[in-house]
Amino acid sequence: xxxxxxxxxxxxxxxxxxxxxxxxxxxxxxxxxxxxxxxxxxxxxxxxxxxxxxxxxxxxxxxxxxxxxxxxxxxxxxxxxxxxxxxxxxxxxxxxxxxxxxxxxxxxxxxxxxxxxxxxxxxxxxxxxxxxxxxxxxxxxxxxxxxxxxxxxxxxxxxxxxxxxxxxxxxxxxxxxxxxxxxxxxxxxxxxxxxxxxxxxxxxxxxxxxxxxxxxxxxxxxxxxxxxxxxxxxxxxxxxxxxxxxxxxxxxxxxxxxxxxxxxxxxxxxxxxxxxxxxxxxxxxxxxxxxxxxxxxxxxxxxxxxxxxxxxxxxxxxxxxxxxxxxxxxxxxxxxxxxxxxxxxxxxxxxxxxxxxxxxxxxxxxxxxxxxxxxxxxxxxxxxxxxxxxxxxxxxxxxxxxxxxxxxxxxxx
Length: 413
Ligand SMILES: Cc1cc2nc3c(=O)[nH]c(=O)nc-3n(C[C@H](O)[C@H](O)[C@H](O)COP(=O)(O)OP(=O)(O)OC[C@H]3O[C@@H](n4cnc5c(N)ncnc54)[C@H](O)[C@@H]3O)c2cc1C
Description:
4-stranded parallel beta sheet, binds flavin-adenine dinucleotide
């Protein structure tokens, strides 16, 4: 069996990116992945920091970094490693032919499927919100039977933000079975086919004037490349802007495909359906992890381990009455004793949720800490949503923390 330098637990964004960074460091890397995590349902765009600690919208993602409290992951990782992580991520997207654009210095306000604007940092080129301001006509195009995107609603809600553009809403027909429940992934698959592309083009040519921008849900193909967008834009002489995704997230799936393609070229082994059930630890050093499968238990050994198995929805943290458990290493996670203190009674109170900030505390090398601040496991590094100290929904920082912590964990191995 191949010796591993690094074993990564979890195949979400943090796990796949940590594997990419470790491979670039010349390490032999194996990923034990149980599903795609939040990449399946959201997550194709990289939010770094949209709102400051006082909940005010930031002028740029980096503008709020200095004010973050000591327990925030960015505080431990530091601005330099965050910038290096984003730069390496962008390098990978360029190498794989699906470049992400944006920077720490500029906030991108991306339209959502509800017609609001969401602050983010790095995006695929087909989601560039600046395109909307480079024209005076924006067509918001939805699809028959797609329940998650109402073009009239999107156009009406966005219009007040755009004084020099006229928004018009329209619908495209799909040749799908009558009454079928349709998702954006179905439409992206349809647009992967020549028949789908021809039908879409014919309909748009009748509706849209050259020089316009076309705002659509993220449906421009399932694959991480710009060939389809380029072809449609050349035929229509228009530019497309895809909105932020609703689940199932085509943009998240494109990013997952991109990262898996990259990892394969770097010689990283990704073991799918590998549910890590426990670990062997000897005097603060992890010596092996075990996976449980329908046939048998397997043991994997490495010099270092990156724990990137997500938060509550990923399975990296488990909530039980009055306590939170990290199920593989049994790392302690502090939580308020009274469960009613885990959340605000008012969901939209404008304040962070306590439960969202629960998670593992780490040092600067992302190693897990005990309640008294001592290092619990010297060769285990934590990345992604199982970290405590931030509420990604509130501050819009989910994938930024995933990338930065994965980078820091991998270079610290
Ligand atoms: C609906 C939704 C939309 C979002 N949209 C955005 C967005 O637009 N922009 C943004 O920046 N952020 C967004 N986020 C947040 C962002 O997706 C997360 O912060 C980020 O993906 C966390 O990545 P992760 O790899 O840490 O965790 P996850 O994506 O949860 O991945 C963890 C992985 O580990 C696996 N795992 C768990 N236990 C084990 C085990 N024992 N053995 C092996 N594997 C295991 C899980 O199955 C999962 O595949 C969104 C989140 C959600 C839920």
